[in-house]
Design brief:
The chain has two domains: about 100 residues, Immunoglobulin-like, CATH 2.60.40; about 210 residues. The chain has two helices and 24 strands.
Length: about 325
């Protein structure tokens, strides 16, 4: 094949691939050019996605024809507004330490300690479960155990994989989640706390309570308490990497085409609401990422709220020092 013909052949194949499968874009640290895993990409229209563990994501202009601006962010970096074009292959984020708030540094503690357990609260009622979407994040407040120096060693995550309701061989899934940590600011989630990132996946084989060991993360609870959140990143491919799936469905209604966020499994059982209302929720790509207590002010039409299922019964194991 002649060189110029080969060049145009490769170019045509590249354009066809970009049109059919989307454009691969990498998110990098502007100082060291290292990849930023699982960065958040918002489309500014209640939609968005996440980069994978290599800091890359796919944007398909055919899939999102009405989107031309991306908002890219990650913990410890300033958010960046980017105009999409065929030439966009990298997004460089500038580190911004001030975004992290006060970093909590805890030296290894010595002395006697005991492990204490706060049980997860769960049930098997499918109609009293939260159906998470890729834009949802749920945060629960934890206090120090008896006001002593306390480290979170494990998290107990109530889940409902619906195994009893699925026929054999159907309903398989693997969903990737992220655990985030936030300061307690007047009883609601405040600034993020930059503990080492915790990424994990759950599949249909898990049920009732998922046990997550985070002892190596050295997560110590501040005097005012800490909010621990569960955030959906999306489904996993067969190789375990984050799948770049469509994040919404288009539904025809009398008011025109409505975009409905794609839901992900497993379901998250919500329990009858306690008086202290320790569960907060937010949608990452809507309402300026604002946290809201899960009550009628969040959604008065929610069946969960109407039935009193207002809290996520997240449990934990604590490493508690005696002095």
């Amino acid at each position: 094949m002649r060189p110029f013909i080969q060049f145009y052949y490769i170019a045509a194949i590249t354009l066809l691939a970009n049109y059919g499968y989307g454009q691969k874009i990498s998110v990098l640290d502007s100082l060291n050019m290292e990849q930023i895993p699982f960065a958040t990409i918002s489309f500014g229209d209640g939609l968005g996605t996440f980069a994978d563990d290599d800091g890359s994501f796919i944007f398909n202009k055919k899939r999102y024809p009405d989107i031309d601006t991306l908002y890219v962010s990650a913990m410890g970096y300033a958010e960046k507004k980017v105009i999409f074009s065929d030439a966009l292959v990298q997004v460089l984020l500038r580190p911004e330490v001030s975004q992290l708030g006060e970093v909590i540094v805890s030296a290894p503690k010595e002395g006697k300690f005991k492990f204490k357990k706060q049980k997860a609260e769960t049930h098997t009622d499918l109609f009293a479960c939260w159906l998470p979407t890729v834009e949802s994040e749920i945060a629960v407040l934890f206090k120090r155990y008896e006001n002593r120096a306390t480290q979170i060693s494990k998290l107990y995550l109530p889940i409902n994989a619906e195994r009893e309701y699925k026929s054999k061989g159907k309903g398989n899934f693997a969903t990737i989640f992220r655990i985030n940590y936030y300061e307690n600011k007047g009883g609601r989630p405040g600034a993020p706390i930059p503990y080492e990132e915790t990424i994990f996946s759950m599949d249909q084989k898990e049920d009732k309570v998922f046990e997550l060991d985070i002892l190596s993360k050295s997560v110590f609870i501040p005097e005012d308490g800490i909010f621990v959140s569960l955030q959906v990143l999306g489904y996993a491919k067969k190789d375990g990497r984050l799948a770049q799936t469509k994040q919404y469905r288009e539904i025809k209604t009398p008011r025109g085409i409505q975009k409905i966020s794609t839901s992900f499994r497993p379901l998250l059982p919500f329990i009858k609401g306690a008086s202290h209302k320790n569960t907060y929720v937010r949608r990452i790509f809507l309402n300026n990422k604002k946290w809201q207590v899960f009550d009628k002010r969040y959604n008065k039409n929610s069946k969960l709220i109407q039935n009193g299922n207002r809290n996520y019964g997240l449990g934990a194991e604590f490493k508690v020092w005696e002095d």
